[in-house]
Amino acid sequence: MSMQGIAAATLALCTLHAAHVQAQAPDAWPTRQVQVIVAGSAGSGTDLMSRAMAQRLSTVFNQQFIVDNRPGASGAIAAMAVVKSAADGHTLLYTNGSFSVMAPALVKTLPYDIQRDLVPVAQTAVGGVLLLVNPDIPARNLRELVEHVRANPDKYSYGSWAVGSSGHLIMEWLKQQTGMRMNHVAYQAVPRLLTELASGVLPIAWADPSAPLPFIRSGKVRGIAISGNVRVPGTPDIATMGEQGYQFDAVGWFGVFAPAATPAAVVRRLNEEINKVQSSSEMQSLMSRMNFEPPPVKSAAQFRDIVTNDLQTWRKIVTDNNIKAE
User: Fold this and answer.
1) How many other C-beta atoms can be found within 10 angstroms of the C-beta atom of residue 31?
2) Model pTM score
3) Could you report the per-residue pLDDT of 34-48, keeping only the tens digit for each?
Protein backbone atom coordinates (compact mmCIF):
# COMPACT_ATOMS: atom_id res chain seq x y z
CA MET A 1 0.00 0.00 0.00
CA SER A 2 1.28 3.47 -0.84
CA MET A 3 2.07 6.02 1.84
CA GLN A 4 -1.00 7.98 0.74
CA GLY A 5 -3.12 4.86 1.11
CA ILE A 6 -1.71 4.17 4.56
CA ALA A 7 -2.40 7.77 5.60
CA ALA A 8 -5.96 7.61 4.29
CA ALA A 9 -6.60 4.31 6.04
CA THR A 10 -5.14 5.65 9.28
CA LEU A 11 -7.31 8.76 9.06
CA ALA A 12 -10.40 6.64 8.42
CA LEU A 13 -9.56 4.41 11.37
CA CYS A 14 -9.02 7.40 13.66
CA THR A 15 -12.30 8.95 12.51
CA LEU A 16 -14.14 5.68 13.13
CA HIS A 17 -12.52 5.36 16.57
CA ALA A 18 -13.45 8.95 17.48
CA ALA A 19 -17.03 8.35 16.39
CA HIS A 20 -17.13 5.18 18.46
CA VAL A 21 -15.78 6.98 21.53
CA GLN A 22 -18.31 9.78 21.02
CA ALA A 23 -21.14 7.28 20.71
CA GLN A 24 -20.01 5.48 23.85
CA ALA A 25 -19.50 8.68 25.87
CA PRO A 26 -22.90 8.63 27.62
CA ASP A 27 -22.34 5.07 28.85
CA ALA A 28 -18.85 5.88 30.10
CA TRP A 29 -19.93 9.06 31.85
CA PRO A 30 -19.84 9.88 34.71
CA THR A 31 -16.83 7.94 35.89
CA ARG A 32 -16.45 9.81 39.17
CA GLN A 33 -18.12 12.41 41.40
CA VAL A 34 -19.76 15.34 39.57
CA GLN A 35 -19.26 18.81 41.00
CA VAL A 36 -22.25 21.15 40.67
CA ILE A 37 -20.98 24.68 41.19
CA VAL A 38 -23.81 26.97 42.26
CA ALA A 39 -23.90 30.70 41.57
CA GLY A 40 -25.76 31.44 44.77
CA SER A 41 -25.36 31.37 48.52
CA ALA A 42 -26.52 28.56 50.79
CA GLY A 43 -30.23 28.95 51.46
CA SER A 44 -31.00 30.89 48.29
CA GLY A 45 -33.54 29.64 45.76
CA THR A 46 -30.72 28.73 43.40
CA ASP A 47 -29.09 26.66 46.13
CA LEU A 48 -32.28 24.87 47.15
CA MET A 49 -33.17 23.98 43.57
CA SER A 50 -29.67 22.75 42.80
CA ARG A 51 -29.57 20.48 45.85
CA ALA A 52 -32.91 18.88 45.02
CA MET A 53 -31.73 18.20 41.48
CA ALA A 54 -28.28 16.94 42.56
CA GLN A 55 -29.77 14.52 45.06
CA ARG A 56 -31.93 12.90 42.38
CA LEU A 57 -29.19 12.82 39.75
CA SER A 58 -26.93 11.04 42.23
CA THR A 59 -29.46 8.24 42.33
CA VAL A 60 -29.97 8.20 38.55
CA PHE A 61 -26.27 7.97 37.69
CA ASN A 62 -25.03 6.08 40.78
CA GLN A 63 -22.39 8.78 41.24
CA GLN A 64 -22.41 11.62 43.73
CA PHE A 65 -23.45 15.04 42.41
CA ILE A 66 -21.95 17.40 45.00
CA VAL A 67 -23.14 21.01 45.34
CA ASP A 68 -20.42 23.63 45.76
CA ASN A 69 -21.65 27.17 46.50
CA ARG A 70 -19.58 29.96 44.91
CA PRO A 71 -21.58 33.19 45.36
CA GLY A 72 -20.43 36.67 44.41
CA ALA A 73 -19.38 38.92 41.52
CA SER A 74 -22.75 38.67 39.75
CA GLY A 75 -22.29 34.93 39.28
CA ALA A 76 -18.84 35.31 37.71
CA ILE A 77 -17.00 33.43 40.48
CA ALA A 78 -19.07 30.29 39.90
CA ALA A 79 -19.08 30.67 36.12
CA MET A 80 -15.30 31.07 35.90
CA ALA A 81 -14.74 27.99 38.05
CA VAL A 82 -16.71 25.99 35.48
CA VAL A 83 -15.18 27.70 32.44
CA LYS A 84 -11.69 26.80 33.69
CA SER A 85 -12.59 23.19 34.50
CA ALA A 86 -12.08 20.15 32.29
CA ALA A 87 -14.82 19.86 29.66
CA ASP A 88 -15.64 16.25 30.50
CA GLY A 89 -19.06 16.57 32.13
CA HIS A 90 -17.76 16.24 35.68
CA THR A 91 -18.10 19.95 36.50
CA LEU A 92 -21.43 21.71 35.94
CA LEU A 93 -22.79 25.19 36.63
CA TYR A 94 -26.19 25.64 38.25
CA THR A 95 -27.28 29.23 37.95
CA ASN A 96 -30.21 31.53 37.26
CA GLY A 97 -31.24 34.01 34.61
CA SER A 98 -30.03 36.94 36.70
CA PHE A 99 -26.44 35.75 36.49
CA SER A 100 -26.66 34.14 33.05
CA VAL A 101 -28.31 36.77 30.87
CA MET A 102 -29.08 39.83 32.99
CA ALA A 103 -25.67 40.51 34.51
CA PRO A 104 -23.94 40.14 31.10
CA ALA A 105 -26.46 42.59 29.65
CA LEU A 106 -25.40 45.19 32.20
CA VAL A 107 -21.84 44.42 33.27
CA LYS A 108 -19.46 44.80 30.33
CA THR A 109 -16.37 43.60 32.19
CA LEU A 110 -17.36 40.03 33.08
CA PRO A 111 -14.35 37.74 32.58
CA TYR A 112 -16.27 35.24 30.45
CA ASP A 113 -18.78 35.13 27.60
CA ILE A 114 -21.71 32.86 28.37
CA GLN A 115 -22.36 32.14 24.67
CA ARG A 116 -18.71 31.37 23.90
CA ASP A 117 -17.45 29.73 27.10
CA LEU A 118 -20.45 27.73 28.34
CA VAL A 119 -22.97 25.40 26.73
CA PRO A 120 -26.60 25.40 27.95
CA VAL A 121 -27.64 21.94 29.13
CA ALA A 122 -31.15 22.16 30.62
CA GLN A 123 -33.65 24.66 31.98
CA THR A 124 -34.98 23.56 35.36
CA ALA A 125 -37.54 26.11 36.59
CA VAL A 126 -39.21 29.38 35.64
CA GLY A 127 -40.82 32.20 37.56
CA GLY A 128 -40.80 35.81 38.55
CA VAL A 129 -39.13 37.48 41.51
CA LEU A 130 -40.84 38.97 44.54
CA LEU A 131 -40.81 42.64 45.56
CA LEU A 132 -40.86 42.78 49.36
CA VAL A 133 -40.97 45.47 52.03
CA ASN A 134 -40.42 45.70 55.74
CA PRO A 135 -43.83 45.98 57.47
CA ASP A 136 -42.98 49.51 58.62
CA ILE A 137 -43.31 50.68 55.01
CA PRO A 138 -46.92 51.93 54.69
CA ALA A 139 -47.64 50.23 51.36
CA ARG A 140 -49.85 47.24 50.62
CA ASN A 141 -49.44 47.15 46.85
CA LEU A 142 -47.10 48.37 44.13
CA ARG A 143 -48.90 51.61 43.37
CA GLU A 144 -48.88 52.61 47.05
CA LEU A 145 -45.16 51.81 47.25
CA VAL A 146 -44.41 53.93 44.19
CA GLU A 147 -46.36 56.86 45.61
CA HIS A 148 -44.67 56.55 49.01
CA VAL A 149 -41.13 56.40 47.59
CA ARG A 150 -41.82 59.29 45.20
CA ALA A 151 -42.98 61.37 48.16
CA ASN A 152 -39.71 60.58 49.96
CA PRO A 153 -36.94 60.90 47.33
CA ASP A 154 -33.56 59.39 48.24
CA LYS A 155 -34.84 58.31 51.66
CA TYR A 156 -34.96 54.58 50.92
CA SER A 157 -32.60 51.96 49.56
CA TYR A 158 -33.59 48.68 48.01
CA GLY A 159 -31.66 45.43 47.96
CA SER A 160 -31.15 42.59 45.50
CA TRP A 161 -28.80 39.63 45.40
CA ALA A 162 -26.32 41.11 42.88
CA VAL A 163 -25.53 43.91 40.49
CA GLY A 164 -27.27 42.92 37.28
CA SER A 165 -29.76 40.63 39.01
CA SER A 166 -33.35 40.60 37.81
CA GLY A 167 -34.37 42.48 40.95
CA HIS A 168 -31.80 45.18 40.20
CA LEU A 169 -32.77 45.60 36.54
CA ILE A 170 -36.51 45.46 37.16
CA MET A 171 -36.34 48.10 39.88
CA GLU A 172 -34.16 50.35 37.73
CA TRP A 173 -36.73 49.96 34.95
CA LEU A 174 -39.51 50.77 37.42
CA LYS A 175 -37.63 53.85 38.65
CA GLN A 176 -37.34 55.09 35.08
CA GLN A 177 -41.08 54.59 34.56
CA THR A 178 -42.22 56.22 37.80
CA GLY A 179 -39.61 58.76 38.87
CA MET A 180 -38.78 56.96 42.11
CA ARG A 181 -35.36 57.80 43.56
CA MET A 182 -33.63 55.01 45.52
CA ASN A 183 -30.16 53.55 45.83
CA HIS A 184 -29.38 49.90 45.11
CA VAL A 185 -27.64 47.69 47.68
CA ALA A 186 -26.16 44.46 46.32
CA TYR A 187 -25.99 41.49 48.68
CA GLN A 188 -23.98 38.32 48.16
CA ALA A 189 -26.31 36.20 50.26
CA VAL A 190 -30.10 36.14 50.05
CA PRO A 191 -30.53 34.98 53.70
CA ARG A 192 -28.68 38.08 54.91
CA LEU A 193 -30.79 40.29 52.63
CA LEU A 194 -33.98 38.82 54.10
CA THR A 195 -32.70 39.07 57.68
CA GLU A 196 -31.90 42.76 57.23
CA LEU A 197 -35.21 43.35 55.49
CA ALA A 198 -37.11 41.73 58.36
CA SER A 199 -35.15 43.72 60.97
CA GLY A 200 -35.71 47.04 59.21
CA VAL A 201 -32.06 47.65 58.27
CA LEU A 202 -33.18 47.33 54.65
CA PRO A 203 -36.65 48.70 53.84
CA ILE A 204 -37.28 47.28 50.35
CA ALA A 205 -35.90 44.26 48.50
CA TRP A 206 -36.27 41.78 45.67
CA ALA A 207 -35.79 38.05 46.20
CA ASP A 208 -36.52 34.75 44.49
CA PRO A 209 -39.99 33.28 45.17
CA SER A 210 -38.75 30.53 47.49
CA ALA A 211 -36.42 31.88 50.16
CA PRO A 212 -38.78 34.61 51.53
CA LEU A 213 -41.75 32.27 52.15
CA PRO A 214 -41.11 31.78 55.91
CA PHE A 215 -40.66 35.55 56.36
CA ILE A 216 -43.87 36.31 54.45
CA ARG A 217 -45.91 33.71 56.31
CA SER A 218 -44.66 34.93 59.70
CA GLY A 219 -45.47 38.55 58.83
CA LYS A 220 -41.85 39.68 59.12
CA VAL A 221 -41.89 40.96 55.52
CA ARG A 222 -44.72 41.92 53.19
CA GLY A 223 -45.03 40.88 49.56
CA ILE A 224 -45.91 43.75 47.22
CA ALA A 225 -45.67 42.30 43.70
CA ILE A 226 -44.16 39.58 41.55
CA SER A 227 -42.55 40.06 38.16
CA GLY A 228 -43.49 37.90 35.21
CA ASN A 229 -46.99 37.21 33.96
CA VAL A 230 -48.36 34.67 36.46
CA ARG A 231 -48.82 34.45 40.21
CA VAL A 232 -47.02 31.60 41.93
CA PRO A 233 -48.55 28.81 44.04
CA GLY A 234 -46.98 29.65 47.41
CA THR A 235 -48.03 33.31 47.39
CA PRO A 236 -51.26 33.45 45.36
CA ASP A 237 -52.36 36.73 46.98
CA ILE A 238 -49.35 38.63 45.65
CA ALA A 239 -50.41 40.17 42.32
CA THR A 240 -48.15 40.46 39.30
CA MET A 241 -46.70 43.81 38.30
CA GLY A 242 -48.89 43.78 35.20
CA GLU A 243 -52.04 43.24 37.24
CA GLN A 244 -51.09 46.35 39.20
CA GLY A 245 -50.56 48.54 36.15
CA TYR A 246 -46.83 48.09 35.56
CA GLN A 247 -46.49 45.61 32.72
CA PHE A 248 -43.24 43.67 32.98
CA ASP A 249 -43.55 40.19 31.49
CA ALA A 250 -39.94 38.99 31.38
CA VAL A 251 -39.51 35.91 33.54
CA GLY A 252 -36.56 34.42 35.34
CA TRP A 253 -35.33 30.85 35.16
CA PHE A 254 -32.86 28.38 36.57
CA GLY A 255 -30.63 26.16 34.49
CA VAL A 256 -27.60 23.93 34.11
CA PHE A 257 -24.54 24.78 31.98
CA ALA A 258 -21.30 22.97 31.17
CA PRO A 259 -17.92 24.07 29.76
CA ALA A 260 -18.22 24.88 26.06
CA ALA A 261 -16.17 21.91 24.82
CA THR A 262 -18.17 19.28 26.74
CA PRO A 263 -18.98 16.35 24.39
CA ALA A 264 -22.38 16.74 22.75
CA ALA A 265 -23.34 13.19 23.74
CA VAL A 266 -22.79 14.01 27.43
CA VAL A 267 -24.85 17.21 27.09
CA ARG A 268 -27.70 15.24 25.49
CA ARG A 269 -27.61 12.59 28.19
CA LEU A 270 -27.60 15.18 30.93
CA ASN A 271 -30.46 17.06 29.29
CA GLU A 272 -32.55 13.91 29.01
CA GLU A 273 -32.02 12.84 32.61
CA ILE A 274 -32.49 16.33 34.07
CA ASN A 275 -35.75 16.67 32.13
CA LYS A 276 -36.92 13.33 33.51
CA VAL A 277 -36.08 14.45 37.05
CA GLN A 278 -37.81 17.80 36.59
CA SER A 279 -40.90 16.14 35.08
CA SER A 280 -41.36 13.67 37.93
CA SER A 281 -44.38 14.22 40.16
CA GLU A 282 -42.08 14.26 43.18
CA MET A 283 -39.92 17.08 41.80
CA GLN A 284 -42.88 19.09 40.52
CA SER A 285 -44.51 18.88 43.93
CA LEU A 286 -41.28 20.06 45.53
CA MET A 287 -41.01 22.99 43.11
CA SER A 288 -44.59 23.99 43.87
CA ARG A 289 -43.84 23.97 47.61
CA MET A 290 -40.78 26.11 46.89
CA ASN A 291 -42.96 28.56 44.93
CA PHE A 292 -41.55 27.76 41.47
CA GLU A 293 -43.12 26.51 38.28
CA PRO A 294 -41.57 23.59 36.35
CA PRO A 295 -40.82 24.59 32.75
CA PRO A 296 -41.99 22.64 29.72
CA VAL A 297 -39.46 19.99 28.68
CA LYS A 298 -36.84 21.57 26.41
CA SER A 299 -33.84 20.24 24.54
CA ALA A 300 -30.40 21.72 25.08
CA ALA A 301 -30.78 23.54 21.75
CA GLN A 302 -34.11 25.05 22.82
CA PHE A 303 -32.55 26.20 26.09
CA ARG A 304 -29.69 27.76 24.10
CA ASP A 305 -32.26 29.73 22.08
CA ILE A 306 -33.84 31.00 25.32
CA VAL A 307 -30.44 32.19 26.53
CA THR A 308 -29.80 33.99 23.22
CA ASN A 309 -33.23 35.65 23.12
CA ASP A 310 -33.11 36.69 26.78
CA LEU A 311 -29.71 38.30 26.32
CA GLN A 312 -31.21 40.46 23.57
CA THR A 313 -34.28 41.29 25.70
CA TRP A 314 -32.32 42.39 28.76
CA ARG A 315 -29.75 44.32 26.74
CA LYS A 316 -32.60 46.30 25.22
CA ILE A 317 -34.05 47.02 28.68
CA VAL A 318 -30.63 48.19 29.88
CA THR A 319 -30.14 50.43 26.84
CA ASP A 320 -33.69 51.82 26.64
CA ASN A 321 -33.72 52.73 30.34
CA ASN A 322 -30.08 53.91 30.50
CA ILE A 323 -29.34 51.50 33.35
CA LYS A 324 -25.75 51.66 34.55
CA ALA A 325 -23.68 49.20 36.53
CA GLU A 326 -22.74 50.56 39.95
Assistant:
1) 10
2) 0.80
3) 999 999 888 887 898
Provide the number of structural domains found in the chain: 2
Cα–Cα distance, 65 to 316 (Å, whole number): 37
**Which contacts (CB < 8 Å, 24+ apart) does range 210-218 have?**
210/45, 210/48, 210/49, 210/234, 210/290, 210/291, 210/292, 211/43, 211/44, 211/45, 211/48, 212/130, 212/132, 213/290, 213/291, 215/132, 216/132
* pLDDT single digits (tens) 126-179: 888 999 999 999 999 999 999 999 999 999 999 998 888 889 999 999 999 999
Give the 3-state secondary structure of residue 18. helix
Distance in Å from the first CA to the final CA of the chain: 68
Neighbours of 86 (CB within 10 A): 10
172 and 187 in a single domain? The answer is yes
Q: What is the amino acid identity at position 55?
A: Q
Q: Is residue 249 part of a domain?
A: no
In this structure, the answer to whether residues 220 and 260 fall within a common structural domain is no
Amino acid at 130: L
Pairing of strands 91-96, 183-186: unpaired
Same domain, 262 and 122: yes
The answer to whether 148 touches 139, Cβ cutoff 8 Å, is yes
Q: How far is CA 203 from CA 14, 139, 150, 209, in A?
A: 64, 11, 15, 18
Residue ranges making up the domain that contains 234: 130-244
